[in-house]
Write a structure and sequence with these properties.
This protein has 15 helices and eight strands. It is of the alpha/beta class and 334 residues long. The N and C termini lie far apart (53 Å).
Length: 334
């Protein structure tokens, strides 16, 4: 058995990663609720997420955060983006001094405008900063759990640590590519959820494939524009964490963010939609955070702003589409 791993968060993605890592590692999976941890340990299945998946015997669950991370050489964070700060504040005193911290949460903190790696740097001692690794890319949890071939990006400021995580997690059906552009990978992972809501809205209104293609392409432009302003490499957005994740989230039936948009386009209110969802659609909170960040940086993001106004009830889905098509004409590369 190789290095021990902690997975923080027993949602769909945390559960599928626990299964993935449990092939060759001792894994401790942290669940927020004690009854969930007990059920996982009794049955080998998560009662709330991916219940059909049988976890390896190498995976054990706990609802004690300190127990989850003590002595763990690799700590994977798979909690919703709005919970990352609180969880990691509680985890920080118990981390092994040499641990590599992998963040899979995709989003921007609404209160601060910080990306997830920046939240970690704000919470963790500076000795951990170079060992923060981002994992992102086109990856539905269900398909990872089914061992469907999947490719993702792992990125860190010091690519040595990304390569280390790449070696630990890669297997015949899960392939990791290393990268050193943390900000580009993070912006891609956050903004693609916003664009997926926009695509869903248009599909819910009955618009066709031309509309979807236009939104995805112009959405990629918005993503790149914001990322470049923050210092990202524009080529990152042509890769797995940019175009790859955007394509999957905007077209896949398993996409929660696309589904939120579909229901908005069909006339349901946001409160109705979120009450009926058993899982988090990151794009709802991320839309507000992305727009605040874009306003502060004076970056033009008309698709994101239109989604924001639909989510807040300032305009209807149909009005958003009409306004987008009525904007002043311009050159494509502006």
């Amino acid at each position: 058995m190789s290095s021990p791993i902690a997975v923080l968060g027993a949602g769909s993605f945390g559960t599928c990663l626990a299964k993935l890592c449990g092939r060759e590692h001792d894994v401790l999976l942290w669940a927020r609720r004690e009854e969930v941890a007990l059920r996982i340990n009794e049955t080998g299945r998560n009662p709330g997420y991916l219940e059909e998946v049988l976890l390896p015997k190498t995976v054990r669950a706990t609802n004690d955060l300190s127990e989850a991370v003590i002595g763990r050489e690799l700590v994977i964070i798979a909690v919703p983006s709005h919970g990352v700060r609180d969880v990691m504040k509680n985890v920080a005193p118990h981390l092994d001094p040499g641990a590599i911290v992998v963040i899979t949460s995709k989003g921007i903190e609404t209160e601060t405008g910080l990306t997830m790696s920046q939240v970690l740097m704000d919470v963790l001692d500076s000795s951990f900063h170079s060992r923060i690794v981002l994992l992102s890319g086109p990856s539905f949890a269900t398909e990872i759990a089914e061992e469907q071939p999947t490719a993702v990006t792992v990125a860190s400021r010091d690519e040595t640590y990304a390569i280390s995580v790449q070696a630990e997690l890669s297997c015949p059906w899960f392939r990791c590519y290393s990268h050193d552009d943390i900000i580009g990978v993070e912006i891609g992972g956050a903004v693609k959820n916003v664009i997926a809501i926009a695509v869903g809205i248009c599909e819910g209104l009955g618009m066709g494939l031309n509309t979807r293609a236009a939104l995805m392409t112009r959405g990629l432009r918005e993503m790149t524009r914001l990322g470049e302003t923050l210092g990202a490499n524009p080529l990152t957005f042509q890769g797995l964490s940019g175009m790859g994740d955007l394509f999957l989230t905007c077209t896949g039936n398993l996409s929660r963010n696309r589904n939120v948009g579909l229901q908005l386009g069909r006339g349901r209110s946001l409160s109705e939609i979120t009450l009926g969802m058993g899982q988090v659609a990151e794009g709802v909170k991320t839309t507000l955070a992305v727009c605040q960040l874009a306003d502060r940086l004076e970056v033009e993001m008309p698709i994101a702003q239109s989604v924001r106004m639909v989510l807040t009830g300032e305009i209807t889905s149909l009005e958003a589409g009409t306004e987008m098509m009525s904007r002043q004409l311009r050159a494509e590369l502006d």
